[in-house]
Amino acid sequence: MSDNKLHTTSWTEIEYPVTSKNPFIVEPIFEPKEVNYFLCRPDGERVPSRLSFAVFNTLDGDEDDWEDDPMMGHIRLQVLGDGDEEVEPLEVYYLDLSARELLTLESEDEKTLTFNIYWPDGEVSVPKALSSDGDLYVINRSEFDDGKTVEMVLTPDDGEPFSLHIQIPFTGFQLLDEKDNRISEDVEIDMKQAENWHYSFVGTPDKDRFSVALDNDRLNYICIWREDGQLTVRNQHDHMAVVGEIPSEGSIRQLMHGARTMLVKFRNMRLKVSLIDDAFKEEGMPECDAVALARFAFEKFINTDDEESLANDLITLEKKLFFQWYWLSDADWSHENMEGILDISDIESDPEKMMQQALLFNRYESFMKKLRMFSYMTQDDIQGDKIRERNNKRKILRSAKCIVAHQQGAESLWDKPLETRQEILQLFHLYHQAFIETLESL
């Protein structure tokens, strides 16, 4: 929960998980053990904190009344600073239950919606409800026209009344850009910005699923909405077998599972998303050759202060050129192969320059070893199911043998046809554990 207002002192921020949000309630619900806590300072520092460093107070409580445990209702939360550091609190809603448990849509028709509102620690009233029966509240649809919300008043058994607001969310699938604008047309997204694009899906009993086709139908999933805020992911290529689950809202990368293109289908909606990589322009791309790649990485390395970002950028080259960095050996990035990039002019007569270049190359060599390990560990977010894995067992074995032969110098992967390298890459990422086990058994 980022705060964009101007602060003159340190302040408190928290990040809510998807389970803290109910699509039918405007406000997120605070669950102490589920959120992430941060101490933020005017100089831009944002330090992770812990629940044990959080204190709580009522909205009108004295500054000496902070407690270690949250009280029921609309309250203030503050993380502790260093020494006498002044820290601004923030307001949260604590109910001692999750957002999904509090309210569910029980049923609906053309004129009304019926909500089940469950809260055992106090009384609930919905002034604009047409009727109520126990935990069921019937509300006219017209109350939600033009994005309006309906007040829900909660009165704790021990505390002051407070209000939450019921809304009718956008149902179905939506793609949101960096500014939370809804995108309804096919779109290309810069890979570096993909983490800032989000998907969201809110289902109803008769509209509870959408399909995702990845990389021209290489993978084809059905995502089924559950009221706990998760999507069950099933594989259409394998008789709807369950392959995992993801949140019903999150970064677009979570939904794309490492793919470069995605086609989303929901009822009559069709939306294609393509990730593009502008980190390296096509005209500046290296040849798919070990030494050329090592030299390319070195040229980028000497011009960056952010090794982590560079490593991520270099990994994106794998799917562009169909290779893997762990195919490279130490000899491929030897200093002899860096001629023209390492500055060795007059180096024998300049000990200080010799030391600087040696330190630079040692840093680069360490970076390449980390990059090779990063490449070896990278896999698709959702792995292929066991049945398809067994069906591809021979292909996995054949690909693993190609890698071993390459590592032993018997043959070169760089000389293999593009189709062969592409198959190795896909099998490695989609059946990562089986591929590694096969490779390491040879």
Number of helices: 9
Instruction: Give the percentage of residues in beta strands.
Output: 25-35%
Share of helix, binned: 10-25%
Mean pLDDT: 89
**Radius of gyration over all CA atoms, rounded:** 28 Å
Number of strands: 25
Q: How is the main sheet built?
A: 7 strands, mixed
Rounded to the nearest angstrom, the distance between the terminal CA atoms is 50 Å
Structure description:
There is one protein chain. The longest helix has 27 residues. It contains nine helices and 25 strands. It is an alpha+beta fold and 442 residues long. Helices cover 24% and strands 29% of the residues. A seven-stranded mixed beta sheet has the order 17-25-24-19-20-21-22.
Give the topology, please:
Blueprint: E1 10-15, E2 36-40, E3 46-49, E4 54-58, E5 73-79, E6 87-88, E7 90-94, H1 99-102, E8 103-108, E9 112-117, E10 122-125, E11 131-133, E12 136-140, E13 150-156, E14 162-166, E15 172-176, E16 182-183, E17 187-190, E18 198-202, E19 209-214, E20 219-225, E21 230-235, E22 241-247, E23 249-251, H2 252-256, E24 261-266, E25 269-276, H3 290-301, H4 307-321, H5 351-377, H6 386-391, H7 393-407, H8 418-430, H9 432-441
Parallel strand pairs: 1-6, 17-25
Antiparallel strand pairs: 1-2, 2-3, 4-5, 5-7, 8-9, 9-12, 10-13, 11-12, 13-14, 15-16, 15-18, 18-23, 19-20, 19-24, 20-21, 21-22, 24-25
Helix pairs in contact: 4-5, 7-8, 7-9, 8-9
Question: What keyword list fits this structure?
Answer:
24% helix, alpha+beta, globular, 9 helices, four-stranded mixed β-sheet, seven-stranded mixed β-sheet, 442 residues
